[in-house]
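Whiteboard transcription, Tuesday session. T.W. wrote the structure tokens on the left side:
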């Protein structure tokens, strides 16, 4: 089982990069999926390590994307798939956000959040996700279906599908994070 991150806050300036382990090379399917998801979650933390609020708000034109927006977006993605779709339970701040006024609310509102607030929001979402996945695996494995149907297909989504999608989501956005971080201070690599 993948556990919650207990390393010092990597959003605080001057913190060391959080530990990140290579996903296991020989384990079962759930262990492989969780290993890759944890690896990509921690890669995001590497990309924001040591940055202050101004750096988290910096854009790389013409894109409006920021690292702070990415952190908040991925907190939303965690809660969307594991709380809203899997459990059919609304979670704040997403449930009361005015999505009609701003479809990109998580991205734009991140500029008003401190690094500590962004990290706390992301940590809480990841912790909820980890508890949800652990309970789901204990109750029946990867083939179970979500309580809420997928908005496009109208069908239940398997836990396997959600985990694969989460790996894809983080991997894609970590590519964005690579470019944003390099534009901020020249840092490259993993």
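and on the right, the sequence the group agreed on:
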């Amino acid at each position: 089982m993948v556990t919650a991150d207990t390393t010092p806050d990597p959003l605080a300036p001057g913190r060391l990069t959080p530990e990140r382990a290579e996903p296991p090379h020989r384990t079962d399917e759930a262990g492989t999926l969780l290993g890759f998801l944890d690896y990509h979650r921690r890669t995001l933390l590497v990309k924001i390590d040591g940055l202050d609020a101004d750096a988290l708000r910096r854009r790389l034109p013409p894109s409006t994307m920021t690292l702070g927006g990415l952190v908040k977006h991925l907190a939303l993605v965690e809660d969307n798939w594991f709380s809203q779709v899997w459990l059919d339970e609304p979670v704040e701040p997403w449930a009361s956000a005015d999505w009609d006024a701003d479809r990109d609310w998580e991205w734009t509102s991140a500029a008003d959040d401190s690094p500590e607030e962004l990290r706390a929001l992301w940590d809480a979402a990841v912790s909820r996700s980890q508890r949800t996945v652990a309970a789901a695996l204990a109750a029946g494995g990867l083939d179970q279906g979500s309580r809420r149907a997928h908005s496009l297909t109208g069908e239940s989504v398997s836990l396997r599908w959600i985990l694969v999608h989460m790996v894809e989501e983080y991997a894609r956005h970590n590519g964005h994070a690579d470019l944003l971080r390099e534009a901020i201070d020249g840092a490259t690599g993993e």
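Someone added at the bottom: The chain has one domain: 29-185.
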